[in-house]
Amino acid sequence: MTGVSIEIKEVGLEAALNLVQGIADAPTLELTEGIGRLMEERTRKRIEEDKKSPDGKSWKPNVAGTSILYREGNLARSIDYVATSDSVQIGSALVYARIHQMGGTIKPKTAKALAFMIGGEFRLVQSVTIPARPYLGISGEDEREIINTTEDWMRRLVQ
Predict the structure, then answer these.
(1) How far is it, in rounded angstroms, from Cα 73 to Cα 81?
(2) Any idea what the Cα angle at residue 116 is, between residues 112 and 120, rounded to 5°?
(3) Where is 117: in which H helix or E strand?
(4) Nearest one of 73, 64, 50, 42 to 133, comparing CA atoms
(5) Is 57 within the bounds of a domain?
(6) Long-range contacts for 73-78 (Cβ within 8 Å, ≥24 apart)?
(7) Would you say residue 132 lies in a domain?
(8) Could you tell me the superkingdom of the organism this chain comes from (predicted)?
């Protein structure tokens, strides 16, 4: 009897499958911590130097003519992150952080007016409108850095 037979031998498949399984079981907290540190640094730089939102728009100047969002550096220093194995949150716990990010109007709660100094001049006003000056977010450059960080982390896993 005549016939045909085919023999298939796999070479390296098991090693490749183990490699893929190794990536699936990888400690992702290492990656998210790295992304958190990266975004913390980039957000601080945005506040301290760039003076632009993540989409590249310059922030509106302030009335006092001082450095925007960086009088004494408290907001920049307050930027922090929390990383878990599958997420990263970045922000500030300062009470005034939200109004700078989102903008809004401040009105007195119990007094008849708000009192403050600007440029050595004392002012009493009924309200103050603060324009949004987004400092939190991901720019195009940030996105590329996150991708590069992720690719480097994955390369280390497969070597």
Answers:
(1) 17
(2) 145
(3) strand 114-118
(4) 50
(5) yes
(6) 73/48, 75/47, 75/100, 75/135, 76/44, 76/47, 76/48, 77/44
(7) no
(8) Bacteria
Average pLDDT, consecutive stretches of 10 residues, N- to C-terminus, the chain (159 residues): 54 64 77 95 96 95 86 95 92 95 95 88 93 95 93 82
Structure tokens at 82: 């929390």
The parent domain of residue 142 ranges over 13-98+138-158
CB 154 within 8 A of CB 146: no
**Tokens 């109004």 appear where?**
99
pTM above 0.70, yes or no: yes
Number of domains in the chain: 1
How far apart (Å, rounded) are the C-alpha atoms in residues 80 and 93?
8
Residue 6 domain-assigned? no
Token pair for residue 29? 């907290």
Q: Is 45 helix (H, G, I), strand (E, B) or coil?
A: helix
Burial of 35 (0-12, 13-18, 19+ CB in 10 A): buried
Cβ-contact 86, 92 below 8 angstroms: no
